[in-house]
Amino acid sequence: MKILLILSTHEMNTTFIDSVKTIKSNIIDSLTEDGNTVDIFCVSSNNDHDNYKEILGDIKFKIRCIERQFLKIVQVFKYLDNNNIEDYDWYIKVRPDVTVNEKINNQKMDTFNKNAINTRVRFYLGPEINVPFGASFVVNEHWEHGWSYSETINNITPDDEIYFFHSSIAKKTFAKIQNHELNSKRVILDCIPLTPPNKGWMIKQNFEGEILLHGLKQQIEFFHRDMFNIRNIPIQPTSLNVTFRGVQSNDLIIEKR
Description:
It is built from eight helices and 15 strands. It is globular and about 50 Å long. The termini are far apart. The strands form four sheets. Strands 1, 2, 3, 4, 6, 8, 9 and 12 form an eight-stranded mixed beta sheet that branches. The protein has a three-stranded antiparallel beta sheet with strand order 5-13-14. By secondary structure, the protein is an alpha/beta fold. The protein folds into two domains: about 1-110, Spore Coat Polysaccharide Biosynthesis Protein SpsA, Chain A (Alpha-Beta Complex); about 120-160 and about 175-245, no CATH class. It has helices at about 15-35, 55, 70-80, 105-110, 165-175, 180, 210-215, 220-230; strands at about 1-10, 35-45, 60-65, 90-95, 100, 115-125, 130-135, 145-150, 155-165, 185-195, 200-205, 235, 240-245, 245-250, 250-255.
């Protein structure tokens, strides 16, 4: 397989070197040892793409983009298209401050859904599910309502620190945001967990376009969720044993109540 690893960040900070080493050994080297070709694409808000060159080796593509995470990946696919770069089989989007604690090899790749964004979950409101290492946030007494059972709603908010996605959905998922999307008058449920000490979820009907416009400035996880939803891209809760800023993946276990 041909795989493109997209290292995306505001800053290629040298304090992330230890994490980058795990990306190299547990993703790039592991997949290469299984017979795959893995190319590297660095996108940063600064001209610091070579800060990890000693670790990563050849960095095939480099661009500077001051936008936030979602639009950074949009620019990656714009660059690939403008330069007539042949499609890859799989794409991996990861931040350099993510520590990868498991080997990502062909066996692991075979478990991923080719028609969905494979990722950990930031917040969840939906049916029963059990995914080891499937949540990016420690379920504690303050945020326990952020992972809740619902018979009628299936709301998955992805964590944008690491994504695995196939070529079958890549260009559609990260196409340029269109005016008709931002102007959409389709009424949807907007679901957001309340900030502690409040408990529960804020669930209200709103125009899809208004939700996107509200999220466009910061492009946090809810914006990613809403863009995937408007483009009919499923979010697949996925077992990924990684650590981000000292917090290791937690098990995503939702039981019927």
